[in-house]
Amino acid sequence: MKVIAYYKNQTKHILVLDACQEEINSEDFFQEIAGVYTNLEIMFIESLILPVRIIEALINLVDQYGQETFKIYTTTESLSQYLFELSIPNIQLHRLSQIRSENDSEALIKFSEEELRDLLTGIYQIHGYDFRNYQLENLRRTISQTMLRETALDFDSFKKKILQDHEVYQRLFLNLSINVTSFFRNPVLFKELREEVLPYLNSFPHLRIWSVGVASGEEAYSLAILLDELNMLEKSIIYATDFNAFVLQKAQNGFYALPPLRQAGENYRKSGGSKRLEEYFHVNPYYARIKPYIKKKVVFFHHNLTSDTIFNEFHLIICKNVLIYFNSQLQENVVNLFKQSLHRNGFLVLGRSENLFNRQDFIKYKAGFNVFKLFNQG
Description:
Order of helices and strands: EEHEHEHEHHHHHEHEHEHEEHEEHEEE
Number of domains: 3
Protein name: Putative Chemotaxis protein CheR
CATH architecture of the largest domain: 3-Layer(aba) Sandwich
CATH class of the largest domain: Alpha Beta
Distance between the termini: 57 Å
GO molecular function: S-adenosylmethionine-dependent methyltransferase activity
Domain CheR-type methyltransferase: 104-378
CATH topology of the largest domain: Rossmann fold
Low-confidence stretches: 96-108
Radius of gyration: 23 Å
Structural class: alpha/beta
Number of strands: 15
Mean pLDDT: 88
InterPro entries: Bact_Chemotaxis_MeTrfase, CheR_C, CheR_MeTrfase, SAM-dependent_MTases_sf
Strand order of the largest sheet: 11-7-6-12-13-15-14
Shape: globular
């Protein structure tokens, strides 16, 4: 993190670069905000997310100064949106270019399959992320939307931006890798885990669970809450992984907007929950933060299903709505990875629209649910 501070017209300005990860020199930031000023403005430059301490400091500054004398500026849509979710007012500074509507003519963004594959190969060679075995139509849709946001005149110029400008690539990467999630999404499945799968696994002295494609963490924390209500949390550890460092930091922060959390209360009750979902959070007027005893049982790791190897030996692997983005060969590779990462009596949970088709090494645990048990002959 780099911090630059200066005064102008009775206002203290603080510029913060590379604030995505909390480092030792982040103390420079806290030194600069100490004291009382007539006006204070903070600008976060190209930061996608902020660590916990800085989020808490911003809330204290909003309370201390009010919105008239304290302003926060951001240069990325992801950080601006994250702060708004936590009820922290901010002003996003847009790039100095004309913003085209995403409903513009598709004639502006046509490109061939060969051009798309060539772009994916370039991304892998230069940026190290392999999207070559993702479903092409999903990729085409996301890339087209990103081209419109970047006001690219044609595919060749867009490709050049992606391969040469890391900031443009980062914006595409976020669009390609962020999944929609919520607490206790698909409550019927969580009820099945509560009543059938986890009681079966309770015979083990220790439990290891892998939540794949964790996004902003709601699924992993939902599992921890469920385990707590079954008196299984203390002997369990949840490994939550994603290949997107931005969403991992967001999940590790454990901050969540209040309206969707309250909406998720109904799903929590449908899953068999008997308390109020808010009881598992410290709630203030800005946001809810997951309680430490829940948070400490979830550990977050960077893991890429397309390139990384066996992760551990797990009793339960949950991978919902991830395989649908892969082609058939990559799906096969990933399921083989899961098989090698499972305990011999372990379970694999997939999304509602995903399946294992004709594989003989997994059996469906119960009709109507995409819960599979590793099949061991003899």
